[in-house]
Amino acid sequence: xxxxxxxxxxxxxxxxxxxxxxxxxxxxxxxxxxxxxxxxxxxxxxxxxxxxxxxxxxxxxxxxxxxxxxxxxxxxxxxxxxxxxxxxxxxxxxxxxxxxxxxxxxxxxxxxxxxxxxxxxxxxxxxxxxxxxxxxxxxxxxxx
Length: 144
Description:
The structure is a single chain. The protein is mainly alpha-helical. 53% of the residues lie in helices and 0% in strands. It is elongated.
């Protein structure tokens, strides 16, 4: 059984109708041609009936002549000795965001302590540890 004798499904008819709608929207078909071709597409029983509906439209490639396009080539690998700029190369990139979080938590702690009128354990101090370690790691780490 050849392609022209194989039964076309509803999805195949809809796909052709969608391509015809795109051609109409782009001005490659007038309304009368579009109506006629859509009626033929939805009335098609086999792939052979669908094949001729898109052949003369520019920008569409019949299934028999379609080709697989290769994917874009991958990015070249980084050389072994080359250093790639890491996030946080400039401490201000990460220092500002995390320092803002620490400042907000400190304000919440301060307002809570003032509102309760008694001493509350200073939990925001623990948030300073990653900030200090990160800062010194950026300044003095990585063999500088």
